[in-house]
Design goal:
Length: 1094
Amino acid sequence: PLKSLAEALKGKQGRFRQNLLGKRVDYSGRSVIVTDPKLKLHQCGLPKTMALELFKPFVMKRLVELGKVENIKGAKRAIDRSASFVWDILEEVIDGRLVLLNRAPTLHRLSIQAFEPVLVEGKAIHLHPLVCSPFNADFDGDQMSVHVPLSQQAQAEARVLMLSANNLRSPASGKPVNVPSQDMIIGVYYLTQVRDGLPGEGHVFASFDDALNAYDARTEVDLQAKIMVRVSAEQANVFTEDGRKLFRVMNGRGDAVDYDVTGSKTARFETSIGRIIFNQQCLPADYEFINYKMAKGDVSKLVADCCDRYPQAEVGPILDAIKYAGFHFATRAGLTISLWDALIPEDKPQILDIAQKRVDQINEYFEEGFINEQERHIEVVNEWTAATDTVAAKMLDMFDEENPIYMMADSGARGSKAQLRQLGGMRGLMADMSGETIDLPIKANFREGLLPLEYFISTYGARKGLVDTASHTSDSGYLTRRLVDVAQDVIVREEDCGTTEGVTYNLIIPGTDDINADLVGRCFIEDVVAPDGETLFHTDEYIESVADLQKMIDHGMKKVKLRALLTCRSKYGVCQKCYGWDLSTRRPVAIGTAVGIIAAQSIGEPGTQLTMRTIHSGGVAGVEDITQGLPTVGRMFDVVGNVNEKILGREADLAPYSGVLSIKPEKAEYIIQILDADDPTRILDERRVPASVRFMPGIEDGAEIRAGDQITKGFVNFRNLRKLTDIESTMHTFVESVKDVYTSQGVDLNDKHIEVIARQMLRRVQITNPGDSRYLLGQYVDRYEFADEVDRVARRGGTPPAAEPVILGTLKVASSIDSWLSSASFIRTAGVLTEAAIEGKVDHLLDLKSNVIVGKKIPAGTGLKPYANATLTYRTADGYVNIDGPTSPASKSLPDWAPSELKELDEQLPQQLDWTGYDEYGTGDGSFTRNGRTISAEDARLYLFDDLGVSQRWTNKFSEVGIETVGDLVGKSEEDLLRIDGIGAKAIEELRDGLEAHNLLYILDNTDDVADEEDLSQLLQMVFSPDGPDDILLGTSAPRHHFDSDEEMIGAPAEDSSKKDASSGIINEDMASLDELLNQLVDNDDHHPEEQED
């Protein structure tokens, strides 16, 4: 079918989303995944045949280099034949290289991670068990795709930023993501359990090694038997400032016992062989001795604690050790399940009889008209809920600790106590498709089997689950997409925006006794002075731990003023201080981090987990019954104007004025009045609400209230709230409302991410009176820009503009951004493009999507200007060596450790042209200087075809090698240009004419003072080839791998001594032939000038 122009652009299959924002890439593959417990955390198994196809060009190059084949064609043949030596070369080529693994749907940053490939037989990709949870992968047929980062910069970036062992924390909550589960948990649980009356109980051992030797020798000591062990100074794990050595034993969470082992002192304590194995094999020597049963929660806390205390490079091996121990002992223990392991309480029939009699009584009251239908339903539901709980409690009392089903639930490896109830107790009450509880309980459990009617009732829940899951996936994806569009230009662009405003936060979460741990990592805007006058913290310090928050609370503080995204004054993006810590690294966020994208991913990724409705808890009718979950979150971000009560429940009542509250019950409703605080007889506002509403904590008769305070629970209409109160209160209410939905579903999400989106929604005001300003009526303007404009107009004596505060929904924010390219790729493609064309809009390419669309590097991460001239380094025997010269990534200057003969030759070659200002090119500012002449940024942006008049055919050839503007000619001589395929004297002539017309000919001035030593330059390239594999054929200190910091990166391949000797042989041989060659050339120069003419 024919497509119109607009049709071809819009929608998911349109030009924008299909071709410009989504690209197909080479060097990629995809296959089914299987688990492989033998891998280390930073490794993945790559099928040999797939690896050969992915790394084919590298293998071919290496085959030719080593002389195994004559030319590229021969290399191709050898690979197609699968010659035996090809596999050895493949091993060598992938050594130290990384591949990226991705599992669709890519919901957040951790869905793409880098691994070191290990070649495996078969056709499936092998995945480390601990990275399943960030990928959300399981092994029921899931597939993953593999991508190869090609350039050295890409490899370095993948290793530093994307290696799985360097991504242990979730960017959404800062909690570890690679926590052991299932088999590993059951293994560790079994290993650390102790039981009474086992062989070897009461034995005393002189040391840990003694105990382990006794166990290995198969003497009569059981893994779980209680034994006594002696510890001495060697085992000390705590060292005090006064020089004492202690051995600290944790006998439970928070229950530590210290044994003094200073000098020759020793101590004895009770433990088991299993616990010794766990502590010795899995934990660092300076970690406290864990002496209690480890369930899933304990292992999670242990991993989180290790992440806090040790560098990431050390946490990977700890996780691998826990994984190994877990799998090993789960195999040794071998849990099995029988039907008879699900125990049924003996007095279940009596409990049900009593409940049934009470329910019959309630129904009788209803029939006689003493109670109405709603009250009957509530009473019946409460009765059956109580009966179900009683049966479940009796059943749990019957289990002993060795029962396999109980062990699974108790350890947290699989299932829960609620599921045990269904196996051996009774299934209880079910909800129908609208979430209403059916007051007919399922009295049977799965062991007894269900009656046909009971089975039918339970089909509601099962089908609803499947339908919800399917409909949720697309909704959740759409939510993420809207949020990305809203926040994609929020990038950390500077260290400090210099704001003097802050936002006040509660140290304790309102309505609870919990400390607000989400404040960890925020920055103080002013000195924190306690009520007693003591200065606790200084300006620009960060809250480093919950202990800092506790310190403020202990000093009697309830609130603290901090820097916040809402008040950040950065013109584009946000600043480092206002954002605070990066949750995944627990240090101040790096400049260049795309925090907006991270926020959108963190909010959108758990979207699929938010179930449609909370099952109505027995009888608590009323507000909690509103649809909790994705629809609510979606509508909050869209800022719906009129609240649909069927979908969102009752709208919350907000106080329209400040004053004193009066609440009077009357029949089936409450009368709420707001009275003037100065004159209690004056009623400012009066409304009636149904008796079923629930009031917010602290709302009672006679309470003082401020305009905008929420009186009743329900869905807050944020448009009304924004009109009634200040921007800070609106933000707090919005963040709390969204957070509540996530918390109620057990999802951990940091407030900071919701604040990023809230900032975007609250940052504009709507013009109500343009005055003498440049604004139009009804226009949305950034509030800081508006404040500056008011000042400007007032200074000139004009009428300043007026505006009202607004809160915009995601769709409105996304379509009102400055970039028309981004806007067009979101919604209303044709409309946005026509409007932009009519208004003559300019897109300054400040956000991510617009740069992706035009094919430029995104202005985030290493694409930011400050990082543009960072050079790659190699690690050598003498330390770090830059791989590239200082001027640009293309520079070929020799490294310091190159032999001096080579440097002398290098000096005779035509030198790279000396341009300053090179790195600034294309950034909209800066100029370029050479030979004392300056070329402006404006000239640098002249196009060869449009502005210089070079023919289209030559322009295309130039364009293929990346030369499109005058700026791209910087540093190129005519000889360089003539080497381009398809460019000859005619093309150069046209180019010179165009440059001459603009007085720019000096750009191509050739320094002809040095003869063109073609053969020398080829020789140098053969000897020193920076774009070869990591080996360089000069000097035995040649580096093999590059890292980005002095800290040993995890997953660095160990040096292979056999390879080392071999390579030095090659080098010596090469040096000899090289000397011979160089001598010939030098001799020719000195003694036989006439021969050279030939």
